[in-house]
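Hello Y.,

Per our agreement to keep a running log of every chain we model this quarter, I'm adding this entry. I've kept the format consistent with earlier entries: sequence first, then predicted structure.
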Amino acid sequence: MTTAVGVLALLGLVAWVVPGLFASLSGGEATVNVAPQKPKVSPVEVDLFLEDALKRLGTTSVLQREEEDGVIRGIYQLPRDAQTEIVAQRLRGLADEAGLELYASPVDGLDLEIRAYAGATLRQQLLLVPDLPKPPNLRGAVRNPDRPMLSIVVTEVGKASIEKLLSVRAPITVAIEPYTPFALRTARIAASKWHEVLAHVPKNMTPQEAQRAVPLATGIWFDGTPVAPLGTHDVVVVPADEISGASTPEAIRVLAAQRSDRRDAMATLKRTRHIAVRMGRAAMVITASDPKLDEVLAWSEKAHTQGYRVVLASEAARYEELRGPK
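Predicted structure for the entry above:
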């Protein structure tokens, strides 16, 4: 045993000494190839870079800008006739010159999402919105299955009676807040008039709790990123800017919607119509107290004359099944 221990010690000594001996004979020390690290960029540098870059691009109009948990989120208006692909290439080039990590990806076939990082931490998430022309009026038969689908989701429902809203002849989706004074009555009337009922998930409840509290609810409106699946056929309506870049579980039937609280409701409808034409479907959310709600609903009743098909949220979420095979 003593001999074996001695042999093992000798082998360990040889393994430790020989590499250094060869390195000295070759005239240098043994080196290890290490990938060069980028210099760490501070959040202030990211902010200054984007401020300068956006000025160069002519994005002077800020539709929204807010900071939460160290991340700045904003919506910027691009100048007229600006092409998002060219804008994305230019931003990537400027970021490479400045040594910044920046990603630019299209959203809904219209917008450009920008994500800029300070090191490994997301610092700014911006949406660059083009200046859109008047939405097209499409021609074709009223029963044409290839018409673009558009869903209107009315949120913050249940605090007051909305019988006038529910009398609209186009199919709409209402997101009802649990345990509000008119929640149960509104859900019953909406379902009886062939509208769709969702649960408007408050911040102090889980999606499952909210849906159980709203009778006849076939899904939820959730102001955040996609959540755990509810039921096989349930729909999860989420803000389009929240879902962008997020990983969506395959088991969830998600519908990304444009939010009217970010800008005028009719401007949001105009934008949603453009997205529907390009993507085949689109959705918008509008609060029950929005002063432009009547105008949006009035358009929904005549949408078929302009070549659009107003559908429920669950129908827009599975629009490929409704259209059928090519």
